[in-house]
From TrEMBL:
CDD domains the record matches: UEV_Morgue-like
Gene Ontology molecular function terms on file: ATP binding; ubiquitin conjugating enzyme activity
PROSITE patterns assigned to the protein according to its UniProt record, in alphabetical order: UBC_2 (PS50127)
Protein name per its UniProtKB record: E2 ubiquitin-conjugating enzyme
EC number(s) per entry: 2.3.2.23
Keyword ATP-binding part of the UniProt annotation: yes
Record key words, sorted: ATP-binding, Nucleotide-binding, Transferase, Ubl conjugation pathway
Length: 201
């Protein structure tokens, strides 16, 4: 738990998460039934590489985990997210925020996610599962037309190799318990070299 706190994007934002609250929902409300149905689906048939666990009995607050997709600099990482379902759900989108630090054009330094479907094009057809899958997909294909961190988007566009090196190092540092035993270029990481010091041959 301590290491997870140390790997968080912003201590101030992390502290504020516990201050958020949601008014009680009536047990028989259709919104509540919809949420319970989604929860059962998440538990019985979770999407590959995605998990979500409620933190309260009413399932208003979730801790989610997204596994970094293969073939990306996030591969092997376990990225924790905080998810809060508003009383108006599914008429309004949930609030979702990365807890684990991640270097990505569409994720701010505070963990906020620039995903169009949860900010501008919310639809009743979307579910918690689909949203988490969209975020996972964003790790594979960043959307650069609108970015949360312009400098990172610029780096991604102009020097993909350096971006991948930096994003991979962040993944190893914040989203993994130990550095994998692999070679990066011609340098063995087990000998203590930082991937940022490695240049392609």
């Amino acid at each position: 738990m301590f290491s997870r706190v140390n790997s968080s994007c912003c201590f101030y934002c992390l502290n504020n998460m516990q201050l958020l609250s949601t008014p009680p929902v009536l047990e028989k409300a259709w919104k509540h039934r919809r949420l319970q149905s989604e929860l059962k689906s998440l538990q019985k048939e979770p999407p590959e590489g995605v998990w979500a666990t409620p933190l309260d009995k009413k399932a208003h607050f979730f801790q989610a985990v997204i596994i970094g997709p293969k073939g990306t600099p996030y591969e092997g990482g376990r990225f924790f997210l905080y998810l809060q379902v508003p009383q108006s759900y599914p008429l309004r989108p949930p609030h979702i925020q990365f807890i684990t630090k991640i270097l990505h054009p569409n994720v701010s330094r505070h963990g906020d996610i620039g995903l169009d479907s949860i900010h501008h094009n919310w639809s009743l057809a979307l579910t918690l599962s689909k949203i988490l899958l969209s975020i996972q997909s964003l790790l594979t294909d960043p959307y650069l037309k609108v970015s949360m961190e312009p400098d990172i988007a610029k780096l991604y566009s102009e020097d993909r190799n350096l971006f991948n090196q930096m994003a991979r190092e962040w993944t190893w540092k914040y989203a993994m318990t130990e550095i994998p035993q692999v070679y990066f270029g011609h340098v063995d990481l087990e000998r203590g070299f930082s991937p940022l010091t490695v240049r392609s041959a």
